[in-house]
Each structure stands twice: as structure tokens, then as C-alpha cells.
Amino acid sequence: MKLAGIKPPRHFYWRLATNCILALILLPLVLVASRSFMLDTSNLKHITTNLLPLYVWNTSILVIGTSAITLVLGVATAWFVTVYDFPFRKHFEWVLILPLAIPTFINAIAYVGLTDFAGPIRIFFRWLGTDIYLDIMNHTGAILIMSLVLYPYVYVTSRSAFLLQSSSLMEVSRSLGQSMRRTFFKVVLPLAWPAIFAGLILVIMEVLNDYGVVSYFGIPTFTVGIFRSWLALGDLSTAVFLSVIVLTFVVILLIIEFRANRKKRLTPDKAEPFFSRLKTKRKWLLFSICLLPVLAGFIIPVGQLLWWFFLAYTHDVWTSLFTLVGNTAILGISTTLIVAILSIILVYTFRLVKKKGVKKTIAKLPMLGYAMPGAVIAVGIVAFILIINPDLIYSSILALIFGYTVRFFAVGYGSIESGMEKIPSQIDDAAQSLGSNTFRNLIRVHLPVLKPVLLGALIMVFVDVAKELPITLILRPFNYETLATNAFQYAKDEMAPRSASSSLLIIFVSAIPVYYLNRILHRR
Amino acid sequence: MKLSVEHISKSFEKTQVLKDISLEVKKGEILSLTGESGCGKSTLLRIISGLEAPDDGSILLNGQNITSWKPEKRKFGFVFQNLSLFPHLSVKGNIFYAIKKKDQTAEKLNHLVEMTGLKGLENRYPHELSGGQQQRVALARALAINPELLILDEPFSSLDELLKAKLREEIFDLLRSLHITTILVSHQASDAFLIADKLVVMKDGAIQQSGTPSEVYQKPISPYVSDFFGASVIINAKNKDENIVETSFGSLKIANNRADDFQLFVRPENIQITTSRDFNLSGKVLKKEFKGPHDVLKIGNNSTSEFISLETERCPHEVGETIYLKVPEKEVQIFK
């Protein structure tokens, strides 16, 4: 027998590395899915009859309510900013994205502070000689609070869709006698729908992922159920069961999105170059409509946090902040580096191995992590660690970074992938014809070109880690505090003013990618 | 129906794109707006249709001032250069886009698709149609609203030459038979000649000349207009004697009372190559180019660096020969 005839396939090491990375990233999800076949059925009856309806009900209300509000807010503001001319329009383009910098649970903390007994609203009414009782710790409150900081997802995707639409479609509709309003509903909206829907899916994923708001407000959703069964009761089986249900829902959503995108019909026309914005008599109305979400979703909560910060200010704020920043930075930087390196290997391998059909699907797989609620990923990682060694303490910095990597891999991978696509493949051929090997090409040719994209991707991953709550709460080592957990803990302990410094710092860091998002919007 | 454009001016930022434009279209008339790209013709169309507001001037429809009307109120059928079919709607959906539900009858659809040659394609989507078919849908959609005025912006620019010729003839026949008032914008002279009752030539945001196609062709008022509509021979000249004009190729008998330098213009098909010297131009054939149906001669002489580029039928003369050109006085235009 001659074995020498068998040659390893081209780019063997790249392929090997890629397969390992894919396996690692998808492992927690696969574990959660496979575990569902080995459920411990003893608790199952209790859960399905008593808890499940409650989880389904609460989660559905939040998802539906938040979807409706973010849809209206996001699409309307995007439409006004794109088409009409009104005061400060240019500034609204990016200011409208700012609320995205506030994590949902921090917004909740701020609003609870605003409306409680010692908050400015009730102080004001008492000053008027009356008192009102405002309870926002319920479904309506949760929906509003989440919508106010999540609508930018819809805003960003709708706006880029509106910008890409040919203005002559709108003009032709008007010249045929249709008003702006009818044109919007008959032409603009149907054409932009796939993009708007993609933004809406991000909102829904964030709502499913949320643990901070719902646990603070005492609304038992799926995430709360997963937390309770694992952290309070140590019941992995139930946690997995609940995770599988959420996972199924997310997969259905992704399939719907995939189909919506596939149906997206191509517009052959290019956007018209000269596009004068429409003058309107109601320009101050449009101004107010756009100001409202910025005010309620950014300025007011940040104001409240600043007020608290000065209220609770002591010199030792800085010492505790120092540790928190250190912890957060270590986690953020490690995750960021790992995501960057793994993404580059993956993206580069898919570039080298040019297989159309399979590649397209496999290349999208690592995106799955971002769609999964953090609690589900955390449960998967716990399950993984317990399989390796049941005696191991599952909560560790390593486990945390693993969790973050799975969840935020898509953020880095996505932008690096699209950056790589813009490098023409002839460059590879040219470099290779000069006798350079694939690794050298990557270092000498692709990475330098990718540098700006890479930087943007790294910042976005870092910010996501800094904001993350559910994975951190489940997988962090005992007494290990990050900015996010610190803010959350103080709020839960009714010491909200002391959470202000951590919250403000998170918001400040998170505002950086807003700049990048805005730049992407302008690259049309 | 009568549309009057009166003293329209428009600037974008600091560049003035339209300068005091006035024109008029009468019922059933087909007006062709031509000029090189960037001359402001598209902006003028957008102002007429209400998509852009003029800085100055007004648009009158049957004497009524409609300058401030929104485009949706004017209901001028506008066929855009890029066609702008709604990609999410079928052919039927596109044609019926602006038609009220109760008026969306099979009869109306049938009439429109038959007229525009789209029979059998009603349920196709724009991306499933050829360029020519898309063109027809755009036209059918504009005709469906029974517009008082039809506006066609470079309607054939996206088609290849062969398809264009065929479709153009068909569409022009249709427009003629419908007696529909039309403004056609084109940067191609041949479109204008084929269909226009009236021609308006624009340059740098101003009207250079307007008139019937043959007026504009035979009696252009400037080198820009003459070159735009075909080959032209332009020769520098000055007055010599009464009714005698001198050029570097010889003298011509032309009534003229200008004293200073000017230019003579004549269409090449009006120039005859002869053997007689009298009051004819003469020159040497410097170059002879084969251009398919005709030859192009480059004619010059030793006394000048100027030369005449003459498009002519098969020419028996060869390079180096001296030839004489007969230029009939009535065909000559004088540019200052």
C-alpha cells in the first residue's frame, strides 16, 4: 500500500484551525440542544403546568410591546431624517443612535430613580402641593424602558435602507398623483421591509437576552426562569429545558429573516445623486418627534445618573471604580483579542477555500451566538464544563471569556468578513504569484488593509463585553465584580445612587461605537 | 391644454443651472428639449413636474399658475430616465399603481397592455423583463393616469442601438396616434427629428434656439446648435466688397453687411464638388477617410492652417488633388 499518494487537501492547516474554532463556538449551543433529549423529567410536569405559561406570557408581552414601539419610533425617525428638511436634521442623524449606548438595565435603574419618592418628578409634584404615585416596575414600564434604548437598531437599519432606495421611485409615485403618505406605505415601506425586519430581530434578541430589567422589575420571563433554576435551585435540567424553548424561538426568527432577505428584490436603479430634502410646514413637529426619543432615551436617564453621581460622591468612589474598571478591561481586552484572532483565521480560510454553496451557510454559522440569549450560552458552557469534569468550579474568568467569545463572536466576525470582501481577490493571486505563502500574505497584505475595520470591530466587541450582564452573573467567579454587575447589584440593593459611577462609565464607553455606526451609515 | 413656462431660473448652491427659461407647449404638441448633458434640461423637467421648485418664474397650466402645486396634484405622467419601475409590483401592479380600486378594470388593463405591446406579461415582475419591456411598462404606467402632459426624460438611453431604433419608432407612432401633449428630453438629435413638432436647444442653462426641427437644422444660430444636429462646415470669413465675402479658401458671393470677422456655416450636403473656379472655394485634399456610407475629406491649402472637414458621398478625388466647392448662397448661415 502506498500512502504517499494521499495528499492533504490544500490549505490543510487553515481548514483544521477553522473547524476547531467552529466546533468551539458552536459547542455550547449544540450541548444545550442535545441535552434536551436527556431531560430529567421529574420537575418537568411542575414547570410545564405552573411556570411555563407564565414565562411564555410575560416574554411574549415584552417582545410584542417592544417590537411595536421600536418599529414606530425607529422607522418614523429614520424616514423624517432621510426625506425632510427640519431644524438640526443633520445632527439628529447620529444623535438618534445615542440611546443605544445605554444598556436596558441601566435605563431601568435611572427611570426607577426618576419616578420614585425621592425622584425629581415626585419632588416637583409635592412642591406643587400634591403627590402622585408612579409605578413603572411593571410590563408597561419595562416595555417603554427597553424600547427607548433599543429603537436605534430599527432606526439604523431603516435609515440605511431608505438611503439606498432610489429617490426616483418616490418621485415617480408622486408624479403619478400619490401623496407622500401613500407613497411611503405603498413603495418605501414594502421595499425597506427586509432591512427594517433585520433591525427588529436585533431588538427581539435583546429583549430575550435581557435579565437586568425583568429581574429588577420582578417580571418572570424565560431568562429569569433559566437564572432561577440554575443559580437558585442548581437544576441544570430545567435550565436547559427552558433554554431549548428560547433557542427554538430564536431559530424560527432567524429562518424567517433568512427568507425575508432571500425575497429581497433587487432594485437595478442607483440612488439619484441630487436629492433635495422636502420642505415641510410642520418642521418643528418633526423636530419634536425626533427630539422625544433622544430626550427620553438618553438625555433624561444620563441626567438622572449624573445627579446621583454628585449626590453620592465620595472620594472612595475612585478606588472601587479602579478595581471595577480593571476587571472589566481585562475581560474586555482578552475577549476582544480572542475574537479578533479567531475571526481573522475563519474569514481568511473561507477566502482561501472557495466553495460557493456550503461555504455560504457555514460561513454564517458563527453568527448564531449573537442571536442566542446570554443565559442560554452560559447554561451551555456550564453543561460543557460539568461534562469535562463535574468537580471543576465552573465559574471562572476563563469560562466568562469563553461565554463572551461565543456570544459576541458575530460582532467581530461580521465586520471583518465584510471588510475582507472588499479586498479584491486578484490581490491574493498577485501576492501568490510573487512567491509569498498564505500566512505571509495575510500578515503583509490583508491585515494592513483591514486595520481600520479591525479597530472598529474590536471596539464594538469590547463595548458589548462591558455592557454584558446575564453571562457575567452566571459565570463570574465568586465576588468578581465588573462595572455592569456592580451597577446592577447596587440597584437591586436599593442603593441606586451608588451605581451611577459605573453606569456612566459604561455609557461613556458605549457611546464610542455610535460614531462607527454613523460612519457606516454614511458609507452608502 | 396649454403649458407655459415663464422666466424660470434655478440655482443649486452657487451654480445657476437655469437662466430665465420660457417656453410653451400647446395641446397635442410634441416638444423636444435637447442639449448636451449638464445643460439643465433635466432640472427644467423636474421643475415642470413639480419635483423641484424654481427660484424665480412660474409655470402656467391653461393660464392657471401651478408653480406651487405639489407633483401629485399636477399628475403629469413622468417616464424617468432610469424607468423607476416599482420592483415589488408586477407589470399589472405597476400599471395600476395610481389607479383607484374601482377603476382597475380588466378592460383598462387590456387596453393599456395591447397599446404598449405588453400582452401576456401582466403578471411578470420588472426584474423578469427585458430592457425594452421595462420601457413599455414605464410608458403604460404613465399613460394609465390619462396625463394632461407626458414627460419623457431620455427614454431610450438605457437601450442598445438596435433595440432602440425599433422601440423608438413604435413608441413615437403611439404618441402621435394618441395626440398626447408631450415633452421629450433627449441628447440625441435623431430622437428630436423623428418626432418633435418643436425643438428647444439648451446650453448652460439657457435656451439657445427654438423652432421646428428643419428650421433648427437648416438655420442654426450658433456653432453649438449646428454641431449638435449634424455635420457642419464652418469657415472663418470677412467682408471684402459689397456682397463679396473673403475666406482663406477663396471668395464667395454672399449678401452681407458686416464689417468685422464672422463665420460662415453650411451643411455639407449642400456643398457640391465642381470643377469651376468662379466664386467657389478651392483647396487641396489632405486626407480622405472611409466612413462606410460616405467619405470624409480634409481640405486645406498652403495659405492657412484652417481646413474644411467635408462629409461627402463616394468621392472620386484623391489625396493631393485640388478641388472646387460650390456653396449656394441661400444655404449659408452667418455666425458672428
From TrEMBL, chain A:
PROSITE patterns xref list: ABC_TM1
Keywords assigned by UniProt, alphabetized: Cell inner membrane, Cell membrane, Membrane, Transmembrane, Transmembrane helix, Transport
Family: Belongs to the binding-protein-dependent transport system permease family.
Protein name: Iron(III) transport system permease protein
Membrane topology value: Multi-pass membrane protein
Major location (coarse): membrane
Transmembrane intervals: 12-34, 54-82, 94-112, 132-156, 184-205, 236-256, 284-310, 330-353, 365-387, 393-416, 453-475, 495-517
One Pfam short name: BPD_transp_1
Keyword DNA-binding belongs to the record: no
InterPro entries assigned: MetI-like, MetI-like_sf
Subcellular location per the Swiss-Prot or TrEMBL entry: Cell inner membrane; Cell membrane
Keyword Transmembrane included in the entry's annotation: yes
ABC transmembrane type-1 domain ranges (all copies): 56-257, 325-518
GO biological process, one term: transmembrane transport
GO CC field: plasma membrane
Automatic annotation (TrEMBL), chain B:
GO CC, one annotated term: membrane
Protein name: Iron(III) transport system ATP-binding protein
Segments forming domain ABC transporter: 3-229
GO biological process: quaternary ammonium group transport
PANTHER family given in the database record: SPERMIDINE/PUTRESCINE IMPORT ATP-BINDING PROTEIN POTA, SPERMIDINE_PUTRESCINE IMPORT ATP-BINDING PROTEIN POTA
A GO molecular-function annotation: ATP binding
InterPro entries documented for this protein: AAA+_ATPase, ABC_SmlMolc_Importer, ABC_transporter-like_ATP-bd, ABC_transporter-like_CS, ABC_transpr_FbpC, Mo/tungstate-bd_C_term_dom, NA-bd_OB-fold, P-loop_NTPase
Keyword set includes Manganese: no
Pfam families associated with the record: ABC_tran
Keywords: ATP-binding, Cell membrane, Ion transport, Iron, Iron transport, Membrane, Nucleotide-binding, Transport
Keyword presence, Nucleotide-binding: yes
